[in-house]
Specification:
193 residues, single chain
């Protein structure tokens, strides 16, 4: 095992930007109002388990259907690009369908809000560039942060306000856009070599 602080930090920041737990505070608060109580521990653990399972099984699933990691990473770069556009421009390109029969803790909070298509695609894209142990540490750090935000979402909203949340969302959108461009450029070369 070779732990690398730079890789852990970079992977953490990429996942943090994609998961966008700060930008999702308004959705979390809305879910709390609709459903009453959200189990922060359960939501964090389920999301973390989905992310880590996909990190290990994602490649097997891809090879089963005949797709290499670089192709998936390029596709992931496009998804990150569109997520970044949503964050920067304040538009919605993809709408979630709400199901009231399933508890808010698992759906839509743990999946697909936290461990959604963007974060799962990002994990496989990261795997093409970083060591797996560094990605696992980054995922675990994000799970701790997610738990903290879920537990304190009401207080965070009161402190930074809606304007603060919007600013943070736009800043992370720009960072994510730059990451998408880098990911695309790095992996597109590998496809043509």
């Amino acid at each position: 095992m070779q732990f690398n602080t730079k890789e852990i930090f970079t992977a953490f920041m990429i996942l943090f930007a994609v998961i966008d737990i700060i930008g999702n505070i308004p959705i979390i608060i809305d879910l709390r109002k609709k459903m009453g109580h959200i189990q922060s521990e359960k939501a964090s653990l389920i999301a973390g388990a989905i992310l880590i399972l996909f990190l290990f099984l994602g490649n097997s699933i891809l090879s089963l259907i005949g797709i290499d990691v670089n192709s998936f990473a390029v596709a992931g770069a496009f998804i990150l690009f569109f997520i970044a556009l949503e964050m920067i421009l304040g538009i919605t390109l993809y709408k979630q369908e709400e199901q009231s029969s399933v508890t808010a803790t698992v759906f839509p909070l743990a999946f697909p809000l936290i461990a959604g298509p963007g974060s799962l695609t990002t994990l496989l894209s990261l795997r093409a560039e970083f060591r797996i142990e560094n990605i696992i540490v980054a995922v675990l750090l994000n799970v701790v942060l997610i738990y903290t935000v879920l537990k304190t979402s009401s207080a965070i909203e009161r402190i930074i306000g809606q304007t603060g949340i919007n600013i943070i969302r736009k800043v992370f959108g720009v960072i994510l856009l730059a990451i998408a461009v880098k990911l695309f450029a790095h992996n597109i070369k590998a496809l043509f070599i």
